[in-house]
Amino acid sequence: MIGLIWLGSCAYYNTFYNARQYYAQGLAELEKSSDGAITANVRKYFDTAIEKSNKVLLNYPESRWNDDAAYLIAMSQYYKTDYIAAKKSFEYFFATFPASELRSRAEIWYGRCLWKMGEKENALYQLRKSSQKEKKPLLKAEIYFAMADLFMAGNDLDSALYYYRHTVSTAQDNPLAAEAQYHIAEINLKRNNIDQAITDLKRIVDYSPTEELIDKMQVLLARIYRESGRFDEARELINAKLNDIANESIWGELELQLGLLYLAENDYKSAESRFSQVAEKYPNTPIAGEAHYLLGQLYLEHFKNLEKAQSSFEAVRRADRNSKYALDAQSKATDIKRYFTLQSKYREVYKNVQPFLEKIEGGVDIAAVDVDIEEVPEKLKKAIQLFEEEKAKIADTVSVFKNYYQVLYEIGEMNYFEFNNIDSALVYFERIHRQDYFNPIRDKALYAVYYLMRDIGQNDAAEAYLDTMKTRFQESPYLQYIQGQEVRLPGDNIQARQLFLTAEQDLDFQPRTAMDKYQQVIRQYPNSRYAEKSMLAIAWLYQHRFYDLDKSIEWYEKFQAEYPESEYGDYAGGELAKLNQIVEWINKSAEDSLQEGEQAAIPDDESSTSKPVSGDSE
Question: Is 354 helix (H, G, I), strand (E, B) or coil?
Fold first, then answer.
Protein backbone atom coordinates (compact mmCIF):
# COMPACT_ATOMS: atom_id res chain seq x y z
CA MET A 1 0.00 0.00 0.00
CA ILE A 2 2.81 2.37 0.92
CA GLY A 3 4.42 1.51 -2.42
CA LEU A 4 1.27 2.45 -4.34
CA ILE A 5 1.07 5.79 -2.52
CA TRP A 6 4.72 6.46 -3.31
CA LEU A 7 4.19 5.60 -6.99
CA GLY A 8 1.18 7.95 -7.13
CA SER A 9 3.24 10.68 -5.51
CA CYS A 10 5.97 10.16 -8.10
CA ALA A 11 3.47 10.30 -10.96
CA TYR A 12 1.87 13.61 -10.04
CA TYR A 13 5.19 15.15 -9.03
CA ASN A 14 6.74 14.12 -12.36
CA THR A 15 3.81 15.72 -14.18
CA PHE A 16 4.17 18.95 -12.24
CA TYR A 17 7.96 18.88 -12.55
CA ASN A 18 7.66 18.67 -16.32
CA ALA A 19 5.13 21.52 -16.30
CA ARG A 20 7.57 23.64 -14.33
CA GLN A 21 10.40 22.81 -16.74
CA TYR A 22 8.34 23.87 -19.77
CA TYR A 23 7.37 27.08 -17.97
CA ALA A 24 11.05 27.86 -17.30
CA GLN A 25 11.88 27.21 -20.97
CA GLY A 26 9.09 29.58 -21.99
CA LEU A 27 10.55 32.33 -19.79
CA ALA A 28 14.04 31.72 -21.17
CA GLU A 29 12.76 31.91 -24.76
CA LEU A 30 10.83 35.08 -23.98
CA GLU A 31 13.96 36.77 -22.60
CA LYS A 32 15.80 36.16 -25.89
CA SER A 33 13.44 38.51 -27.71
CA SER A 34 14.36 42.19 -27.87
CA ASP A 35 10.79 43.28 -27.11
CA GLY A 36 9.16 40.22 -25.59
CA ALA A 37 7.62 38.96 -28.83
CA ILE A 38 5.43 35.87 -28.44
CA THR A 39 7.02 33.45 -30.89
CA ALA A 40 5.85 29.96 -31.79
CA ASN A 41 8.38 28.46 -29.37
CA VAL A 42 7.21 30.69 -26.52
CA ARG A 43 3.62 29.60 -27.07
CA LYS A 44 4.66 25.96 -27.33
CA TYR A 45 6.43 25.96 -23.97
CA PHE A 46 3.71 27.81 -22.09
CA ASP A 47 0.92 25.77 -23.72
CA THR A 48 2.66 22.56 -22.64
CA ALA A 49 3.15 23.92 -19.10
CA ILE A 50 -0.59 24.68 -18.95
CA GLU A 51 -1.51 21.26 -20.32
CA LYS A 52 0.61 19.37 -17.78
CA SER A 53 -0.49 21.59 -14.88
CA ASN A 54 -4.11 20.90 -15.78
CA LYS A 55 -3.36 17.16 -15.61
CA VAL A 56 -2.15 17.60 -12.04
CA LEU A 57 -5.38 19.38 -11.09
CA LEU A 58 -7.67 16.93 -12.91
CA ASN A 59 -5.95 13.59 -12.26
CA TYR A 60 -4.49 14.20 -8.80
CA PRO A 61 -6.98 16.43 -6.91
CA GLU A 62 -5.31 15.70 -3.55
CA SER A 63 -1.82 16.61 -4.76
CA ARG A 64 0.23 18.87 -2.51
CA TRP A 65 1.31 20.75 -5.64
CA ASN A 66 -2.18 21.73 -6.79
CA ASP A 67 -1.79 25.38 -5.78
CA ASP A 68 1.57 25.50 -7.61
CA ALA A 69 -0.06 24.00 -10.70
CA ALA A 70 -2.95 26.50 -10.64
CA TYR A 71 -0.49 29.37 -10.17
CA LEU A 72 1.64 28.07 -13.07
CA ILE A 73 -1.41 28.00 -15.36
CA ALA A 74 -2.27 31.64 -14.59
CA MET A 75 1.35 32.78 -15.04
CA SER A 76 1.74 30.89 -18.34
CA GLN A 77 -1.43 32.51 -19.67
CA TYR A 78 -0.15 35.91 -18.51
CA TYR A 79 3.18 35.50 -20.32
CA LYS A 80 1.33 34.28 -23.43
CA THR A 81 -0.56 37.62 -23.18
CA ASP A 82 -3.87 35.74 -22.93
CA TYR A 83 -4.95 38.16 -20.21
CA ILE A 84 -8.64 37.27 -20.12
CA ALA A 85 -7.82 33.61 -19.45
CA ALA A 86 -5.09 34.59 -16.96
CA LYS A 87 -7.53 36.81 -15.01
CA LYS A 88 -9.98 33.92 -14.67
CA SER A 89 -7.18 31.55 -13.62
CA PHE A 90 -5.89 33.93 -10.96
CA GLU A 91 -9.41 34.33 -9.60
CA TYR A 92 -9.83 30.52 -9.54
CA PHE A 93 -6.53 30.30 -7.65
CA PHE A 94 -7.66 32.84 -5.02
CA ALA A 95 -11.01 31.09 -4.51
CA THR A 96 -9.59 27.54 -4.38
CA PHE A 97 -6.34 28.09 -2.48
CA PRO A 98 -6.94 31.09 -0.18
CA ALA A 99 -4.21 30.06 2.26
CA SER A 100 -1.52 29.27 -0.35
CA GLU A 101 1.98 30.60 0.27
CA LEU A 102 1.87 31.83 -3.33
CA ARG A 103 -1.16 34.09 -2.80
CA SER A 104 0.78 37.31 -2.22
CA ARG A 105 2.86 36.83 -5.34
CA ALA A 106 -0.24 35.85 -7.34
CA GLU A 107 -1.92 39.12 -6.26
CA ILE A 108 1.00 41.08 -7.72
CA TRP A 109 0.65 39.41 -11.11
CA TYR A 110 -3.13 39.65 -10.96
CA GLY A 111 -2.71 43.42 -10.62
CA ARG A 112 -0.36 43.48 -13.61
CA CYS A 113 -2.89 41.43 -15.55
CA LEU A 114 -5.71 43.87 -14.82
CA TRP A 115 -3.49 46.74 -16.00
CA LYS A 116 -2.73 44.95 -19.27
CA MET A 117 -6.47 44.53 -19.82
CA GLY A 118 -6.96 48.30 -19.46
CA GLU A 119 -8.51 48.05 -15.97
CA LYS A 120 -6.04 50.53 -14.50
CA GLU A 121 -8.10 51.65 -11.51
CA ASN A 122 -8.85 48.05 -10.51
CA ALA A 123 -5.19 47.14 -10.93
CA LEU A 124 -3.99 49.92 -8.65
CA TYR A 125 -6.72 49.20 -6.11
CA GLN A 126 -5.69 45.53 -6.02
CA LEU A 127 -1.99 46.33 -5.59
CA ARG A 128 -2.57 49.01 -2.96
CA LYS A 129 -4.76 46.62 -0.98
CA SER A 130 -2.06 43.94 -1.21
CA SER A 131 0.65 46.36 -0.07
CA GLN A 132 -1.37 47.36 3.02
CA LYS A 133 -1.86 43.81 4.28
CA GLU A 134 1.53 42.36 3.26
CA LYS A 135 3.96 42.02 6.19
CA LYS A 136 7.02 40.54 4.50
CA PRO A 137 9.35 43.39 3.38
CA LEU A 138 10.52 41.71 0.17
CA LEU A 139 7.00 40.91 -1.04
CA LYS A 140 5.88 44.43 -0.13
CA ALA A 141 8.82 45.74 -2.19
CA GLU A 142 7.72 43.59 -5.13
CA ILE A 143 4.25 45.13 -4.92
CA TYR A 144 5.71 48.65 -4.92
CA PHE A 145 7.93 47.71 -7.86
CA ALA A 146 4.91 46.41 -9.81
CA MET A 147 3.00 49.64 -9.14
CA ALA A 148 6.01 51.70 -10.24
CA ASP A 149 6.29 49.66 -13.44
CA LEU A 150 2.63 50.26 -14.24
CA PHE A 151 2.93 54.01 -13.74
CA MET A 152 6.12 54.01 -15.83
CA ALA A 153 4.27 52.21 -18.63
CA GLY A 154 1.63 54.94 -18.48
CA ASN A 155 4.34 57.66 -18.57
CA ASP A 156 3.27 58.92 -15.13
CA LEU A 157 6.83 59.64 -14.03
CA ASP A 158 5.96 61.27 -10.68
CA SER A 159 4.02 58.24 -9.43
CA ALA A 160 6.58 55.83 -10.87
CA LEU A 161 9.39 57.65 -9.06
CA TYR A 162 7.43 57.58 -5.79
CA TYR A 163 6.95 53.81 -5.86
CA TYR A 164 10.46 53.01 -7.12
CA ARG A 165 11.81 54.93 -4.12
CA HIS A 166 9.50 52.94 -1.84
CA THR A 167 10.86 49.76 -3.46
CA VAL A 168 14.44 50.79 -2.69
CA SER A 169 13.74 51.63 0.94
CA THR A 170 11.69 48.46 1.51
CA ALA A 171 13.84 45.93 -0.40
CA GLN A 172 17.10 47.31 1.07
CA ASP A 173 20.00 44.98 0.26
CA ASN A 174 18.20 43.01 -2.45
CA PRO A 175 18.75 43.07 -6.23
CA LEU A 176 15.20 44.38 -6.58
CA ALA A 177 16.32 47.60 -4.88
CA ALA A 178 19.15 47.91 -7.39
CA GLU A 179 16.70 47.45 -10.29
CA ALA A 180 14.42 50.13 -8.86
CA GLN A 181 17.38 52.47 -8.40
CA TYR A 182 18.26 51.97 -12.08
CA HIS A 183 14.76 53.05 -13.10
CA ILE A 184 15.02 56.10 -10.82
CA ALA A 185 18.11 57.13 -12.78
CA GLU A 186 16.22 56.59 -16.06
CA ILE A 187 13.39 58.86 -14.90
CA ASN A 188 15.78 61.65 -13.98
CA LEU A 189 17.42 61.30 -17.37
CA LYS A 190 14.00 61.65 -19.04
CA ARG A 191 13.48 64.82 -17.00
CA ASN A 192 16.92 66.10 -17.99
CA ASN A 193 18.10 66.07 -14.36
CA ILE A 194 21.52 64.92 -15.51
CA ASP A 195 23.57 65.31 -12.31
CA GLN A 196 20.86 63.61 -10.26
CA ALA A 197 20.63 60.78 -12.80
CA ILE A 198 24.39 60.16 -12.53
CA THR A 199 24.21 60.22 -8.71
CA ASP A 200 21.27 57.79 -8.74
CA LEU A 201 23.08 55.49 -11.13
CA LYS A 202 26.21 55.32 -9.00
CA ARG A 203 24.13 54.38 -5.96
CA ILE A 204 23.12 51.10 -7.62
CA VAL A 205 26.27 49.38 -6.32
CA ASP A 206 24.95 49.85 -2.77
CA TYR A 207 22.07 47.44 -3.39
CA SER A 208 23.60 44.12 -4.49
CA PRO A 209 23.02 44.53 -8.25
CA THR A 210 23.23 41.55 -10.59
CA GLU A 211 26.02 41.41 -13.16
CA GLU A 212 23.47 42.09 -15.92
CA LEU A 213 22.31 45.24 -14.15
CA ILE A 214 25.88 46.45 -13.66
CA ASP A 215 26.36 46.08 -17.42
CA LYS A 216 23.17 48.05 -18.09
CA MET A 217 24.38 50.68 -15.65
CA GLN A 218 27.63 51.20 -17.57
CA VAL A 219 25.79 51.61 -20.87
CA LEU A 220 23.26 54.03 -19.37
CA LEU A 221 26.05 56.10 -17.80
CA ALA A 222 27.74 56.43 -21.19
CA ARG A 223 24.41 57.45 -22.69
CA ILE A 224 23.83 60.06 -19.93
CA TYR A 225 27.24 61.64 -20.53
CA ARG A 226 26.55 61.74 -24.28
CA GLU A 227 23.03 63.16 -24.04
CA SER A 228 24.15 65.84 -21.60
CA GLY A 229 26.92 66.99 -23.94
CA ARG A 230 29.76 65.68 -21.75
CA PHE A 231 31.38 64.08 -24.76
CA ASP A 232 34.90 63.70 -23.35
CA GLU A 233 33.64 61.85 -20.28
CA ALA A 234 31.45 59.64 -22.47
CA ARG A 235 34.37 58.81 -24.78
CA GLU A 236 36.71 58.09 -21.88
CA LEU A 237 34.20 55.77 -20.22
CA ILE A 238 33.36 53.90 -23.45
CA ASN A 239 36.99 53.42 -24.49
CA ALA A 240 37.94 52.19 -21.00
CA LYS A 241 35.15 49.59 -21.07
CA LEU A 242 35.96 48.52 -24.64
CA ASN A 243 39.58 47.86 -23.62
CA ASP A 244 38.55 45.59 -20.74
CA ILE A 245 37.72 41.97 -21.61
CA ALA A 246 35.50 41.82 -18.52
CA ASN A 247 33.00 44.00 -20.39
CA GLU A 248 32.85 41.82 -23.51
CA SER A 249 29.13 41.13 -23.03
CA ILE A 250 28.31 44.84 -23.56
CA TRP A 251 30.91 45.73 -26.20
CA GLY A 252 28.24 45.88 -28.90
CA GLU A 253 26.09 48.31 -26.92
CA LEU A 254 29.13 50.43 -26.06
CA GLU A 255 30.21 50.60 -29.71
CA LEU A 256 26.69 51.69 -30.60
CA GLN A 257 26.96 54.44 -27.97
CA LEU A 258 30.27 55.49 -29.53
CA GLY A 259 28.57 55.80 -32.91
CA LEU A 260 25.82 57.89 -31.34
CA LEU A 261 28.52 60.06 -29.75
CA TYR A 262 30.04 60.72 -33.20
CA LEU A 263 26.55 61.57 -34.43
CA ALA A 264 26.07 64.08 -31.60
CA GLU A 265 29.40 65.67 -32.57
CA ASN A 266 28.25 65.90 -36.25
CA ASP A 267 31.09 63.59 -37.26
CA TYR A 268 28.89 61.74 -39.74
CA LYS A 269 31.64 59.76 -41.47
CA SER A 270 32.90 58.31 -38.18
CA ALA A 271 29.32 57.56 -37.12
CA GLU A 272 28.71 55.76 -40.41
CA SER A 273 31.88 53.71 -39.99
CA ARG A 274 31.05 52.72 -36.40
CA PHE A 275 27.42 51.75 -37.13
CA SER A 276 28.61 49.68 -40.09
CA GLN A 277 31.10 47.86 -37.85
CA VAL A 278 28.42 47.14 -35.23
CA ALA A 279 26.05 45.74 -37.87
CA GLU A 280 28.83 43.52 -39.25
CA LYS A 281 30.33 42.34 -35.91
CA TYR A 282 27.03 41.55 -34.15
CA PRO A 283 24.78 40.09 -36.86
CA ASN A 284 21.24 38.90 -36.15
CA THR A 285 20.98 40.80 -32.86
CA PRO A 286 18.87 43.75 -31.64
CA ILE A 287 22.06 45.83 -31.66
CA ALA A 288 22.62 45.10 -35.36
CA GLY A 289 19.00 46.01 -36.10
CA GLU A 290 19.40 49.37 -34.37
CA ALA A 291 22.74 49.99 -36.16
CA HIS A 292 21.12 49.38 -39.56
CA TYR A 293 18.30 51.75 -38.64
CA LEU A 294 20.74 54.49 -37.58
CA LEU A 295 22.68 53.99 -40.81
CA GLY A 296 19.46 54.43 -42.76
CA GLN A 297 18.76 57.69 -40.92
CA LEU A 298 22.29 58.89 -41.64
CA TYR A 299 22.03 58.19 -45.36
CA LEU A 300 18.57 59.75 -45.52
CA GLU A 301 19.10 62.92 -43.50
CA HIS A 302 22.78 63.78 -43.84
CA PHE A 303 24.26 62.08 -46.91
CA LYS A 304 21.03 62.32 -48.98
CA ASN A 305 21.79 58.91 -50.43
CA LEU A 306 18.36 57.34 -50.85
CA GLU A 307 19.63 54.06 -52.34
CA LYS A 308 21.84 53.33 -49.34
CA ALA A 309 19.14 54.52 -46.94
CA GLN A 310 16.64 52.11 -48.47
CA SER A 311 19.11 49.23 -48.26
CA SER A 312 19.88 49.95 -44.59
CA PHE A 313 16.24 50.22 -43.59
CA GLU A 314 15.45 46.93 -45.32
CA ALA A 315 18.29 45.26 -43.38
CA VAL A 316 16.70 46.06 -39.99
CA ARG A 317 14.19 43.20 -40.06
CA ARG A 318 16.76 40.77 -41.42
CA ALA A 319 18.98 41.51 -38.43
CA ASP A 320 16.18 41.47 -35.85
CA ARG A 321 12.67 40.58 -36.95
CA ASN A 322 11.23 41.83 -33.65
CA SER A 323 13.22 45.07 -33.57
CA LYS A 324 11.35 48.05 -32.15
CA TYR A 325 12.56 49.91 -35.26
CA ALA A 326 11.19 47.29 -37.68
CA LEU A 327 7.90 48.98 -38.60
CA ASP A 328 9.39 52.46 -38.93
CA ALA A 329 12.30 51.11 -40.98
CA GLN A 330 9.93 49.23 -43.29
CA SER A 331 7.81 52.35 -43.68
CA LYS A 332 10.83 54.47 -44.61
CA ALA A 333 12.15 51.85 -47.06
CA THR A 334 8.73 51.72 -48.73
CA ASP A 335 8.53 55.51 -48.88
CA ILE A 336 11.91 55.69 -50.62
CA LYS A 337 10.83 53.02 -53.10
CA ARG A 338 7.66 55.01 -53.77
CA TYR A 339 9.74 58.17 -54.25
CA PHE A 340 11.78 56.46 -56.96
CA THR A 341 8.54 55.32 -58.62
CA LEU A 342 7.18 58.88 -58.52
CA GLN A 343 10.37 60.24 -60.08
CA SER A 344 10.02 57.78 -62.95
CA LYS A 345 6.36 58.69 -63.29
CA TYR A 346 7.25 62.38 -63.32
CA ARG A 347 9.63 61.89 -66.24
CA GLU A 348 6.85 60.16 -68.16
CA VAL A 349 4.13 62.73 -67.42
CA TYR A 350 6.49 65.59 -68.23
CA LYS A 351 7.10 64.08 -71.66
CA ASN A 352 3.33 64.08 -72.18
CA VAL A 353 2.77 67.60 -70.91
CA GLN A 354 5.74 69.24 -72.67
CA PRO A 355 4.08 69.53 -76.14
CA PHE A 356 1.01 71.18 -74.60
CA LEU A 357 3.17 73.62 -72.67
CA GLU A 358 4.99 74.56 -75.87
CA LYS A 359 1.68 75.02 -77.70
CA ILE A 360 0.12 77.12 -74.97
CA GLU A 361 3.20 79.21 -74.42
CA GLY A 362 3.39 79.72 -78.20
CA GLY A 363 -0.06 81.36 -78.19
CA VAL A 364 -1.90 78.73 -80.24
CA ASP A 365 -5.61 78.54 -79.40
CA ILE A 366 -6.30 74.83 -79.82
CA ALA A 367 -9.99 75.25 -78.98
CA ALA A 368 -10.77 77.76 -81.74
CA VAL A 369 -12.42 76.44 -84.93
CA ASP A 370 -13.93 78.91 -87.37
CA VAL A 371 -17.28 77.60 -88.64
CA ASP A 372 -19.14 79.56 -91.34
CA ILE A 373 -22.87 78.67 -91.33
CA GLU A 374 -23.22 79.81 -94.98
CA GLU A 375 -20.85 77.10 -96.17
CA VAL A 376 -22.13 73.96 -97.85
CA PRO A 377 -23.22 71.07 -95.53
CA GLU A 378 -20.19 68.94 -96.39
CA LYS A 379 -17.83 71.65 -95.23
CA LEU A 380 -19.96 72.30 -92.14
CA LYS A 381 -19.89 68.61 -91.26
CA LYS A 382 -16.10 68.58 -91.61
CA ALA A 383 -15.78 71.71 -89.47
CA ILE A 384 -17.94 70.17 -86.71
CA GLN A 385 -15.82 67.04 -86.85
CA LEU A 386 -12.67 69.13 -86.44
CA PHE A 387 -14.31 70.98 -83.55
CA GLU A 388 -15.10 67.71 -81.77
CA GLU A 389 -11.55 66.52 -82.30
CA GLU A 390 -10.21 69.69 -80.75
CA LYS A 391 -12.58 69.29 -77.78
CA ALA A 392 -11.23 65.77 -77.29
CA LYS A 393 -7.71 67.17 -77.37
CA ILE A 394 -8.68 69.63 -74.64
CA ALA A 395 -10.03 66.77 -72.52
CA ASP A 396 -6.76 64.91 -73.04
CA THR A 397 -4.87 68.04 -72.13
CA VAL A 398 -6.77 68.45 -68.85
CA SER A 399 -6.11 64.82 -67.95
CA VAL A 400 -2.41 65.07 -68.78
CA PHE A 401 -1.98 68.25 -66.73
CA LYS A 402 -3.93 66.80 -63.79
CA ASN A 403 -1.52 63.85 -63.63
CA TYR A 404 1.44 66.18 -64.01
CA TYR A 405 0.40 68.43 -61.11
CA GLN A 406 -0.55 65.51 -58.89
CA VAL A 407 2.85 63.87 -59.32
CA LEU A 408 4.59 67.18 -58.60
CA TYR A 409 2.52 67.59 -55.44
CA GLU A 410 3.26 64.07 -54.17
CA ILE A 411 6.99 64.52 -54.76
CA GLY A 412 6.83 67.80 -52.86
CA GLU A 413 5.02 66.10 -49.98
CA MET A 414 7.57 63.32 -49.78
CA ASN A 415 10.50 65.73 -49.81
CA TYR A 416 9.02 67.66 -46.92
CA PHE A 417 7.27 65.06 -44.79
CA GLU A 418 9.40 61.96 -45.30
CA PHE A 419 12.87 63.30 -46.13
CA ASN A 420 12.88 66.75 -44.49
CA ASN A 421 14.15 68.35 -47.72
CA ILE A 422 12.41 71.67 -47.19
CA ASP A 423 14.03 73.53 -50.09
CA SER A 424 13.17 70.79 -52.58
CA ALA A 425 9.60 70.60 -51.31
CA LEU A 426 9.21 74.36 -51.71
CA VAL A 427 10.43 74.17 -55.32
CA TYR A 428 7.78 71.60 -56.24
CA PHE A 429 4.90 73.37 -54.48
CA GLU A 430 5.92 76.73 -55.99
CA ARG A 431 6.08 75.18 -59.48
CA ILE A 432 2.47 74.06 -59.11
CA HIS A 433 0.87 77.21 -57.77
CA ARG A 434 2.62 79.45 -60.31
CA GLN A 435 1.22 77.57 -63.35
CA ASP A 436 -2.27 78.45 -64.56
CA TYR A 437 -2.69 75.88 -67.31
CA PHE A 438 -5.52 73.45 -66.53
CA ASN A 439 -4.42 73.49 -62.90
CA PRO A 440 -7.05 72.18 -60.42
CA ILE A 441 -4.80 72.21 -57.32
CA ARG A 442 -3.25 75.67 -57.25
CA ASP A 443 -5.00 76.49 -53.97
CA LYS A 444 -3.85 73.19 -52.46
CA ALA A 445 -0.24 73.94 -53.43
CA LEU A 446 -0.53 77.45 -51.95
CA TYR A 447 -1.87 75.95 -48.75
CA ALA A 448 1.09 73.52 -48.63
CA VAL A 449 3.56 76.41 -49.00
CA TYR A 450 1.68 78.40 -46.34
CA TYR A 451 1.79 75.42 -43.97
CA LEU A 452 5.49 74.81 -44.71
CA MET A 453 6.42 78.42 -43.99
CA ARG A 454 4.47 78.42 -40.73
CA ASP A 455 6.10 75.14 -39.73
CA ILE A 456 9.65 76.47 -40.17
CA GLY A 457 8.86 79.76 -38.41
CA GLN A 458 8.73 82.11 -41.43
CA ASN A 459 5.42 83.68 -40.47
CA ASP A 460 5.78 86.80 -42.68
CA ALA A 461 6.25 84.66 -45.78
CA ALA A 462 3.33 82.48 -44.72
CA GLU A 463 1.07 85.55 -44.41
CA ALA A 464 2.10 86.67 -47.91
CA TYR A 465 1.01 83.33 -49.34
CA LEU A 466 -2.22 83.57 -47.34
CA ASP A 467 -2.92 86.97 -48.90
CA THR A 468 -2.47 85.39 -52.34
CA MET A 469 -5.02 82.72 -51.43
CA LYS A 470 -7.50 85.37 -50.23
CA THR A 471 -7.11 87.30 -53.48
CA ARG A 472 -7.29 84.42 -55.97
CA PHE A 473 -9.14 81.58 -54.23
CA GLN A 474 -11.84 83.07 -51.99
CA GLU A 475 -13.97 79.88 -52.17
CA SER A 476 -11.15 77.41 -51.55
CA PRO A 477 -11.79 74.88 -48.74
CA TYR A 478 -8.11 75.27 -47.82
CA LEU A 479 -8.59 78.99 -47.20
CA GLN A 480 -11.73 78.25 -45.18
CA TYR A 481 -9.78 75.72 -43.12
CA ILE A 482 -7.03 78.27 -42.35
CA GLN A 483 -9.68 80.78 -41.31
CA GLY A 484 -11.08 78.30 -38.80
CA GLN A 485 -14.28 77.41 -40.62
CA GLU A 486 -15.80 73.94 -40.22
CA VAL A 487 -14.52 72.15 -43.29
CA ARG A 488 -12.91 68.77 -43.86
CA LEU A 489 -10.09 68.45 -46.35
CA PRO A 490 -10.66 65.03 -47.94
CA GLY A 491 -7.50 63.05 -48.49
CA ASP A 492 -5.35 65.83 -47.08
CA ASN A 493 -2.01 64.40 -46.02
CA ILE A 494 -0.97 67.48 -44.07
CA GLN A 495 -3.68 67.24 -41.41
CA ALA A 496 -3.63 63.43 -41.42
CA ARG A 497 0.11 63.48 -40.86
CA GLN A 498 -0.18 65.77 -37.83
CA LEU A 499 -2.54 63.31 -36.14
CA PHE A 500 -0.43 60.35 -37.25
CA LEU A 501 2.70 61.85 -35.67
CA THR A 502 0.96 62.35 -32.32
CA ALA A 503 0.02 58.66 -32.44
CA GLU A 504 3.66 57.70 -33.05
CA GLN A 505 4.71 59.70 -29.99
CA ASP A 506 2.42 57.53 -27.86
CA LEU A 507 3.57 54.26 -29.42
CA ASP A 508 6.04 53.22 -26.70
CA PHE A 509 4.44 54.49 -23.49
CA GLN A 510 0.72 54.57 -24.31
CA PRO A 511 -0.01 52.08 -27.09
CA ARG A 512 -3.77 52.12 -26.43
CA THR A 513 -3.83 55.88 -26.93
CA ALA A 514 -1.74 55.48 -30.09
CA MET A 515 -4.22 52.93 -31.44
CA ASP A 516 -7.15 55.29 -30.81
CA LYS A 517 -5.37 58.02 -32.78
CA TYR A 518 -4.53 55.67 -35.66
CA GLN A 519 -8.21 54.74 -35.86
CA GLN A 520 -9.09 58.44 -35.84
CA VAL A 521 -6.80 58.99 -38.85
CA ILE A 522 -8.59 56.19 -40.69
CA ARG A 523 -12.02 57.66 -39.88
CA GLN A 524 -11.26 61.32 -40.63
CA TYR A 525 -8.83 61.00 -43.53
CA PRO A 526 -9.71 57.70 -45.24
CA ASN A 527 -8.22 58.77 -48.58
CA SER A 528 -4.88 59.94 -47.21
CA ARG A 529 -1.66 57.94 -47.26
CA TYR A 530 -1.63 58.10 -43.48
CA ALA A 531 -4.87 56.13 -43.26
CA GLU A 532 -3.01 53.33 -45.01
CA LYS A 533 -0.05 53.66 -42.65
CA SER A 534 -2.36 53.80 -39.63
CA MET A 535 -4.10 50.57 -40.53
CA LEU A 536 -0.74 48.82 -40.85
CA ALA A 537 0.38 50.33 -37.52
CA ILE A 538 -2.73 48.96 -35.77
CA ALA A 539 -1.99 45.45 -37.07
CA TRP A 540 1.61 45.85 -35.89
CA LEU A 541 0.50 47.04 -32.43
CA TYR A 542 -1.73 44.01 -31.93
CA GLN A 543 1.17 41.81 -33.02
CA HIS A 544 4.09 43.39 -31.12
CA ARG A 545 2.57 45.29 -28.19
CA PHE A 546 -0.65 43.48 -27.26
CA TYR A 547 0.29 40.06 -28.69
CA ASP A 548 -3.30 39.51 -29.77
CA LEU A 549 -2.97 36.90 -32.52
CA ASP A 550 -6.57 37.03 -33.74
CA LYS A 551 -6.81 40.83 -33.82
CA SER A 552 -3.44 41.16 -35.54
CA ILE A 553 -4.49 38.71 -38.28
CA GLU A 554 -7.83 40.51 -38.61
CA TRP A 555 -6.15 43.90 -39.20
CA TYR A 556 -3.51 42.58 -41.61
CA GLU A 557 -6.31 40.95 -43.63
CA LYS A 558 -8.32 44.18 -43.48
CA PHE A 559 -5.25 46.08 -44.69
CA GLN A 560 -4.83 43.73 -47.66
CA ALA A 561 -8.51 44.08 -48.54
CA GLU A 562 -8.51 47.89 -48.28
CA TYR A 563 -5.16 48.47 -50.02
CA PRO A 564 -4.53 45.59 -52.46
CA GLU A 565 -2.05 47.69 -54.48
CA SER A 566 -0.18 49.11 -51.45
CA GLU A 567 3.60 49.37 -51.47
CA TYR A 568 3.39 47.80 -47.99
CA GLY A 569 1.66 44.74 -49.39
CA ASP A 570 4.72 42.49 -49.29
CA TYR A 571 5.41 43.39 -45.66
CA ALA A 572 1.80 42.83 -44.57
CA GLY A 573 1.63 39.56 -46.51
CA GLY A 574 4.82 38.27 -44.90
CA GLU A 575 3.63 39.08 -41.38
CA LEU A 576 0.22 37.55 -42.06
CA ALA A 577 1.80 34.34 -43.34
CA LYS A 578 3.95 34.13 -40.21
CA LEU A 579 0.97 34.62 -37.90
CA ASN A 580 -1.11 32.05 -39.77
CA GLN A 581 1.74 29.55 -39.35
CA ILE A 582 1.58 30.12 -35.58
CA VAL A 583 -2.19 29.51 -35.61
CA GLU A 584 -1.67 26.34 -37.62
CA TRP A 585 0.96 25.15 -35.16
CA ILE A 586 -1.30 25.90 -32.16
CA ASN A 587 -4.18 23.97 -33.70
CA LYS A 588 -1.91 21.05 -34.54
CA SER A 589 -0.43 21.03 -31.02
CA ALA A 590 -3.93 20.95 -29.53
CA GLU A 591 -4.82 17.94 -31.68
CA ASP A 592 -1.57 16.15 -30.89
CA SER A 593 -1.94 16.70 -27.14
CA LEU A 594 -5.26 14.86 -27.21
CA GLN A 595 -3.63 11.85 -28.84
CA GLU A 596 -0.40 11.66 -26.89
CA GLY A 597 -0.09 9.99 -23.49
CA GLU A 598 1.90 11.31 -20.58
CA GLN A 599 5.64 10.83 -21.06
CA ALA A 600 7.39 11.91 -17.87
CA ALA A 601 10.71 11.01 -16.31
CA ILE A 602 11.82 11.33 -12.69
CA PRO A 603 14.81 13.75 -12.59
CA ASP A 604 17.89 12.55 -10.74
CA ASP A 605 18.36 15.76 -8.78
CA GLU A 606 14.76 16.24 -7.61
CA SER A 607 13.12 14.67 -4.58
CA SER A 608 9.49 13.55 -4.81
CA THR A 609 8.93 14.28 -1.16
CA SER A 610 9.92 17.93 -0.96
CA LYS A 611 7.67 20.63 -2.34
CA PRO A 612 9.43 22.75 -5.00
CA VAL A 613 9.62 26.51 -4.80
CA SER A 614 7.82 28.25 -7.66
CA GLY A 615 9.75 31.13 -9.08
CA ASP A 616 8.94 33.70 -11.73
CA SER A 617 10.82 36.50 -13.37
CA GLU A 618 9.76 39.82 -14.71
Answer: helix
